[in-house]
Design a protein that fits this description.
Elements: E1 5-10, H1 14-29, E2 33-36, E3 45-50, H2 55-73, E4 79-84, H3 85-97, E5 103-104, H4 111-116, E6 136-140, E7 142-143, H5 154-158, E8 162-163, H6 166-178, E9 183-187, H7 196-199, H8 204-212, E10 219-225, H9 233-240, E11 244-250, H10 257-262, H11 269-282, E12 287-294, H12 301-314, E13 318-323, H13 331-335, H14 342-365, E14 371-380, E15 383-387, E16 398-402, E17 412-420, E18 424-428
Parallel strand pairs: 1-2, 1-3, 3-4, 4-5, 6-9, 9-10, 10-11, 11-12, 12-13, 16-18
Antiparallel strand pairs: 7-8, 14-15, 14-17, 15-16, 17-18
Length: about 425
């Protein structure tokens, strides 16, 4: 008897994507036909892996669930299941509000869904099905977070930090290399905390060094570091291992001591300035990606001016920003009044991004004339689309090379940068 087909829809971050890939592998190992993020409902069963981080992401998840519930009511879908962060956090409310959903699962019990659907042949030690282009993959090294920043609901959803055993991670890297993966986006809610829950020590530098020594690992890129108690030995690994990209994603959120204290970031303005100085000193050419927040409760005009001045000084190669939104259950929601008006938040956000756009444009234009190593992700019409070591998939500028150069997707090339715009870089391999 044919098993139903399944369409998995992933909302939110790359950490969710890894969970979806693990679920995909489980379904596939048990004989289901599986698709991921299809444009239209294709399967007998839809599984929505939700995000519950901020209001916009929650609303997008809810809208997707409602859309699929409508498809079910119209007979275009037989069963609808929901998993992930949103249902982990709001299970009781969601069950009441959206009864069309056939089953709700949280962040960690999604394997139960496969069992609940019928006879299971295999449930453990199943490799995930990679949904990204074969040459790169996301590698999750930990779950949860112990930081408890005032605005953040992640610890409420995912619980305490839990590091994966190092040998398990290294074994997965070797398996991924055997499948054709060359580039690894190392992810965790807080990767610099890796190992602390095991023996009280930070082991992320050791982990990355061992990963870098695995044959076939071409690029390693690091996401979601934390500024307090930064493990300086990680910079040494980045500097000495050629396949560890000179790229670090580290969310700083703010710079004024007033805001950093109210946000419960456990770092000061001066420590943050010294962090950036030392990173640039110890890893020449490093590209720093950060996230900043405006409109946190109590943010004054002076606090915001400090943030603008800091952004101009730091000249981040990559920067995103967002306006504060109150999240249920967080320290800020329980102890502060959301007192910055919405229009002020938006004005501050717009101004901050205008400053950063000028900086980004200037920094990208400085690459014109340089020869950089580029990996090709795909072909679109008259262009190959690739990235340098300074560009993470989906969030950073892409490199466009003429299709006439007849390149191969998934391969590396030395390319001369010929032009730069705000979001795209132009290059040629005909050096």
């Amino acid at each position: 008897m044919r098993k139903p087909s399944v369409d998995i829809i992933t909302m939110g971050c790359s950490k969710n994507l890894v969970d979806s890939e693990q679920l995909y592998g489980l379904f596939e190992a048990n004989g289901y036909r599986v698709t991921h993020d299809s444009d239209t409902v294709q399967g007998d069963i839809a599984v929505v892996n939700t995000c519950g981080f901020i209001e916009d992401a929650k609303q997008e998840s809810i809208d997707t669930i409602l859309e699929l519930a409508q498809a079910k009511s119209e007979g275009r879908l037989k069963k609808l299941y929901v998993m992930g962060c949103l249902s982990e956090r709001y299970l009781a409310d969601l069950e009441k509000e959206i009864p069309e959903v056939d089953g709700w699962y949280g962040k960690f019990n999604y394997r139960q869904l496969v069992k609940d659907l019928g006879r299971v042949e295999v449930l453990e030690n199943v490799p995930r099905h990679i949904t990204t282009p074969r040459h790169y993959a996301y590698l999750k090294i930990a779950e949860g977070c112990d930081r408890h920043c005032a605005y953040c609901a992640i610890p409420i959803i995912t619980g305490k930090h839990q590091s994966r055993p190092m040998q398990d991670i290294l074994d997965e890297v070797r398996w991924l290399v055997s499948q054709g993966t060359k580039e690894f986006q190392v992810i965790a809610q807080e990767l610099t905390y890796y190992g602390v829950d095991i023996d009280g020590q930070q082991h992320v530098a050791e982990l990355i060094a061992q990963m870098a020594d695995i044959e076939g690992v071409e690029w390693i890129r690091l996401h979601y570091a934390y500024p307090a108690h930064f493990p300086w030995e990680l910079l040494k690994v980045m500097r000495e291992k050629q396949n560890v990209c000179n790229y670090l994603d580290i969310a700083l959120q703010h710079i004024s001591d007033n805001m950093l204290t109210r946000m419960r970031r456990h770092v000061t303005r001066e420590e943050t300035y010294e962090l950036i100085r030392r990173m640039r000193r110890e890893v020449p050419g490093i590209h720093i990606r950060t996230t900043l927040m405006v409109g946190f409760p109590g943010e004054t005009d002076e606090d915001f001016r400090e943030l603008i001045d800091f952004t101009k000084w730091a000249r981040f190669e990559r920067m995103g920003a967002f306006a504060y939104s109150e999240e249920d259950g967080t320290y800020a929601a329980e102890h502060y009044q959301d007192d910055v008006p919405a229009d002020v938040k938006q004005q501050r956000l717009d101004k901050l991004m205008r400053v950063q756009q000028r900086i980004s444009a200037e920094l990208e234009s400085e690459k014109v004339g340089q020869t950089l190593r580029v990996i090709i992700d795909r072909q679109e019409g008259d262009w190959y689309v690739g990235r340098t070591e300074f560009c993470s998939p989906e969030v950073d500028p892409e490199v466009l090379l003429p299709a006439a150069e007849q390149l191969t997707v998934g391969e590396f090339y030395d390319a001369r940068i010929t032009g730069a715009e705000e979001f795209d870089i132009y290059a040629t391999t005909r050096i």
